Every structure is written in structure tokens, then in C-alpha cells.
Amino acid sequence: MVMQDGGLLDVRPGADPGRAAPEHSGAYLATGLALGLYAGALVAWVVTGVADARVGPPAFVEGLFNPLAGPVGALGPQEWALAVALAAVAGAALAQRTLARPAALLLACLVLARSLREGIGLLHPGYRSAYSFEPLGGWTLATHVLGLLAGLVVLCVLLPARTEPGPAAGAWWRGRLSRICGVLFLLAGLVQAAWTVRLLTDGTKGAGAWLAGTVDAAVLPSADAPVTGPGFAALTAITGWLVIGALALNGQRDMRGALLVFASVQLYLTVRTVVGYAVTDAFSAGTHSAEGTLDLATTAYLLAAMTSVLVLTTGRAFSPCQGSTHSWARTRPE
User: Fold this and answer.
1) How many CA atoms lie within 13 A of 237 on its CB side?
2) Which parts of the chain span the membrane according to its record (predicted)?
């Protein structure tokens, strides 16, 4: 309240458009708890693995970014990034932020895919028996079951909790910047898909075994830890880039949360690749062949594209709130 012409003028802001509607509060709470619980399970695996390997903090930090530093626990970089993403989105959901909805749905689908892959593997008697021989087999199975339940809870409670923003809330984002991010994601997915096809058709890898390993855990047994392997990681990356990119390009939904989380994870994995190239001097060696040059160009594009998406999705000036009176919000074309 301020005084104006002898009277009181209410200048308090209206309802926060970035906050979930009161009727959806329970859905966001359940989402935060479910994702937070699964994130805690993955963090427990990381901590246990580091303690068992007796890895000090400096070596652990180096292992996070240097793929040649050696194993620093039972889980891999994909699981590390997933744990951080789950914890961050869980916090946003508990804070009732609508930005968490697309990100939580994305992570729920990913967690469900991981658990369903394990379920397919359990259809094989030999793989089921491996759980009884592994000291941590029971904990691995419990983690996958927890992921299945968490993913189902998030999808069931959050899919109906949809609130369409008003015409002035984020219209510029959905109309222009969302499409820019969508194009960047689609190009990344197409390029990565082309590289995957190239690797599967050059005779060094069996395409059938590779594809089977992406959907069947028994092909690449991992009863001692909740990991999925490089094939599943590559397929989910391609699928994520293409699906999220298509939805963002359509511009009908606010995909900022999914774009932000997926770009963050892929940027971390790309930076880790760049560090590995730097350690092995692959930058100079890669320029000696056309394929090596294309690989470096692809890595450079992913680094630039994911960074650009992060800048666009976190820019304050690109998401005007309902009723904003800033000059940029009034003059942006629709």
C-alpha cells in the first residue's frame, strides 16, 4: 500500500502465474515426494559406492567430469545426472512451481522406462536368479520397484493437473523462443540418431544385440546396481530430443521445465565428453579424418545448443507474467 492523492493505492502483485493452482497443490506435493524419494535412493547408491571404493572428495569430483579418471562407484554419469535432476524437480514441485510439471512428467517417463526395461529382463529365469547371487541384488530390485511406483504416481496425479496460462502469460515464450529451442533439440536428436545408425551399420557393433540391450536388461545384466548401459542412454537421449523438440516447436504447451532439465543433463554429459577429448588430445587427432572432424563438430554443436537452450529457458525477460507492465512485455510481437 502507498499513498496517492491522499488515498491508499494497492500495488501488491496479483497471483503468481508461476505457482500451481490451489486445487493442484496435492498433485504437486505427491509429485515432489515421489521424485524426492527416488532421488534419495539413487543418492544412497552413489554414497555407498563411493564409500565402498574409498574414493576421496577430490577423486570423486574429478570422476564426475573426467571419464578417464576411473570408476567412482556403482552408478554411472547418467545416474548421477538423473539423481540431481530428480532432486531439483522434486524441490520445485514441493514449492508448487508450475515449471516443475513438464520436467516431472519427463522424468517420470524416463524412470518408468528404466524400470520397465528391468521388468522385461526379469522375464528371463537366468537373469532372475542372478539377483539371488548378488549381495546388492535385493536393493537393486527394490530401487527399480521404487522407480516404477514413483513414475506411476507422478503420471497419475500430474497429468490431470493441467492449467493453461492466460493469453498474456508466456505468449512470447510459446510463440517464438519455444520454437527456437524446439529446432535446436530436433537438430540434436537427428544428428545423434544419424551417428547411432552409422555406428550400428559399420560392422563394429551388432545392431540386433544393441537394440535388444536398450529394452531388455537381461542382454546387459546389471543385477548389482540400478544402471541401464550406454545403449539405453543413447536411445533415451535421441527420443527426448525429438519428442521434447517437437512439442516445443509446436508452441502450444509451456515446455520450459522439460527443456531446462533435459538440456542441463545433456550439457553435463557433453562437457564430460569434452573433458575426455581434452585429456586424450582427441581434438588434434580428430581433425585428421572426415569422421573425426564430424564428431568434433557434433560435440561442439551439442555444447552450443544445450547452452543456448539453458540461456533461453532461464532468461527472466523471456517469460512475462500476467499483468506485467514492463516495456518489453508490452512491445513484444505475438
Assistant:
1) 30
2) 27-48, 136-159, 180-201, 231-250, 257-279, 299-318
Per the document, the length of the chain is 334
C-alpha cell at 260: 531446462
What average pLDDT score do residues 283-290 get? Answer: 69
Quick one: pLDDT band at residue 165, thresholds 50, 70, 90?
A: low
- Whether residue 81 contacts residue 237, with contact meaning beta carbons closer than 8 Å, is answered with no
Alpha carbons 141 and 132: distance in angstroms, whole number:
11
Q: Are 269 and 81 in contact (CB under 8 A)?
A: yes
**DSSP 8-class letter at 7:** E
Q: Do residues 167 and 329 touch, judged by C-beta distance below 8 A?
A: no
- The residue-averaged pLDDT of 185-199 equals 92
Block residue for cell numbers 527394490: 142
Residues 303 and 7: their CA atoms lie apart, in Å, by: 55
Please tell me whether residue 307 adopts helix, strand or coil conformation: helix
Spans of all domains in the chain? 24-331
Q: Give SS3 for 313.
A: helix
Q: How many other CB atoms are found less than 10 A from the CB of residue 311?
A: 11
* H-helix or E-strand spanning residue 146: helix 137-158
* Torsion sign (Cα): 69, 72, 78, 82: negative
Cell of 117: 526395461
Q: What angle, 0 to 180 degrees and rounded to 10, lies between the N-to-C axes of helices 100-121 and 137-158?
A: 140
